[in-house]
Amino acid sequence: MSGLSRFYGYVGRVLRVNLTTREVRVVELEEGLVRAYLGGRGLNVVRLYYEVSPGVNPLSPENKLFFGVGPVVGTGFPLGARLNVTAKSPQTGILGDSNVGGHFAPELKYAGFDQVVIEGRSSRPVYLYIHDGAVEVRDADGLWGMRVREAYEAIRREVGDPGVQIAVVGPAAENLVRFSGIFFNRSRPAARTGLGTVMASKGLKAIAVRGDGYVEVAKPELFEKLVEEVEFEVYSHEQYWPRRVMGTTRILMAANKIGVLPGKHFTEPEVPYAFEVSGEMLALRYNVKNRACFSCVVPCSRVFVVKRFSECFISEGPEYEALAGMTVRIGNKDLDKALKAIELVNDLGMDVISVSEVLSWAMELYSRGVLSREEVGGLSLDWGDMEVVMELLMDIAYRRGFGDVLADGVVAAAEKLGKGLEIAFHVKRLEMIQADPRGLKGYGLGFAVSSRGADHLRSEPFIELSDDPEVGLMMFGEPEATLRLGVRGKGRLVAYYENLCALVDSLGVCKNLAENMDILNYQKVAKLVEAVTGMTLSVAEVEAIGERIVNLERVYDVREGVRREHDVLPERFLREPLKVGASTGHVIELDLMLDEYYRVRGWDVRSGIPTVRKLEELGLRDVVEDLRRMGLLPG
Amino acid sequence: MGLHVVVDLSKCSGCRYCEVWCSFTHEKVFSTSFSRIRVIKDDVIGMDFPIVCQQCVQAVCVSVCPTGALYVGSDGVVRLERMKCVRCGKCLDACPYGAVFKDPVNGFPLICDLCGGRAVCVMKCPTNALSLYPLTEVEVVGVEGLGRRYELALTEFGKLLERWGVRVRVK
Q1: Which residue of B has its CA nearest to A296?
Q2: Quick check: A291 and A303 in contact, CB under 8 A?
Q3: Does A214 contact B33 at a Cβ distance shorter than 8 Å?
Q4: CATH entry, B4-133, from 3.90.79.10, 3.40.720.10, 3.40.309.10, 3.30.70.20
Q5: What pLDDT digit, counting tens, does each position of A560-587 carry?
Q6: Which of A4, A33, A110, A535 is geometrically suited to a Cys-Cys bond with A211, CB 3.0 to 4.6 A?
């Protein structure tokens, strides 16, 4: 490795704000951490690991909230606009982590920081205005209680600059609804794992950023060449136009075709009305304009208009998770009403995935007569009744009646009611996304082992949808690896893409470029890191960074009590075969895949704890010591 | 107006690729505060509005410049002679399009110079929202007898065509 004469690609500064003492510190970014973790997600998790001790209450002042940006962000690299937010999760009690696009991440860098660390708790509501290397802690008494859009507009007016980028939490977060997100300029949330709840628990309503700074790259000619190559590969990619027209909403029809939709709480993997609520329908009747994240050449976000007299509105989105969540998962066939519900979920500041699970879980129990009308607060919780849904969304956000039962997540709701735990679809208390793992086995394994609970974006083994055995043979030495219904080779598949996800989350690049379009591979990442930062890393060293992050996250979770027995999927997916659609007859053979996964990872197969050998190989000696002290090292 | 960058608002995605690459081309750093094109955005209504110099023939920025630092070159492009500039900011205030920006480090005005005819914002724009006007001209022949409604339609559609870098000439 060559030396970093200066922090090319980075600003070189970290902002620490203690809300209890109002102390603000600007510290230098540590070169050692950058070399080992790059930035973004990696930089966040290493600080979380060392600064937030095990057992800390996630909603106490001792928890910390990290906003990390990678070296690629703010350069003109395509799809390089991601921000990573991390804390201990109040939803799961383990790693809380969420990644978001938009324009906030580059603005934070231009404002002078690679990372912001929020510590302590303010006794009064405040918001931060970070600009040009400094920060103001401003009074937010008047903002507390405002919904997402209202708060965004109020702060924008107060700052008086249309270029300001604002992260806000909504009323749900203020009421400590466990699945509240942080919303960036209204429509882009870091929603998973309850990070908005952490932010609100600190008395922090919002963070506004604006800056006139800049980012320099180490090797401009190499960088320009690389950008041109990537542009060409993007523009000539077969997924470019579908993504531009529909974004991720195109997945709804695709998922219907292969029988993996979450229809009526994962009982209808295929629905006859899919087209009526599809991305195709949005493109046909609703979308008016494309939008993109900063420096992105795939404008996959869409502005849409609902043209229903007296109920018309304009907004941006949705993505597949929200779309399927507010349509098929809860049995709703009315697209207008789904869009309105999504708008409300966002405006209240909640994670639409978790919301879709608590709603559909309650609806299934209600439809089977397990929950009575009295138990659900007198509501008629019928599939697809959107009037009831709208009411319940408000009740969840403001913790009223049955909404209060649901506001701590599906597991807590089942525990409170003493029923329904067997159909609470979660992993490690994080509610499951909109895909049935019985028909997407790599994804299923990914949900089970993900460091933040049931989520696809830790691994995103999109390539298994290719159903091309030659790819599997070539990449993983196992043809089944890239067959969606295959079992063998999935451990290798998931481990490979988990490492890549960790790496691109740390660079600040979008997963569409790496996992979905398969353009940004390890070779290109090595070149990109060299062009941007000047560090010359071998392909193996680059891969090791991703693997190091995944291992550190695992140890963090292990420290909080996670073992192999927590790497599970709900019973329905393990035992009940799908009855209709193109994945009929399938369950998910999780144990077989897990064994392979731990072996590939170099983790103990029985406990799921990383081995000393693996941790030392990745340079995590301190971590080995920690595990030894806690008596967590297997034999 | 002379040769200038035109914008098709319906296509602009607000990605600001033009901004970062403009900044890099002129200043060798990636930023949005050193660019000569800026996208004004509103995330509530999905507004993305690129602001860039219209290369006015009777350029107000040039006429208000007290030192003659700003001038229209022989190619019709507004230019700045830094040696003469006193950084008074009169050009910033005078431009009716808001298309003169201030360098946040040294205070000099930043104005589009079309990159010598190959404007990097236009070349890099991912959605074809930017064109270097006039790219081309199209003649429509013998439309006089087609009636008032046709004329009206042509006038309105011509405005759209102009956003695509095509000017309609009725012959």
Answers
A1: B15
A2: yes
A3: yes
A4: 3.30.70.20
A5: 999 999 999 999 999 999 999 999 999 9
A6: A110
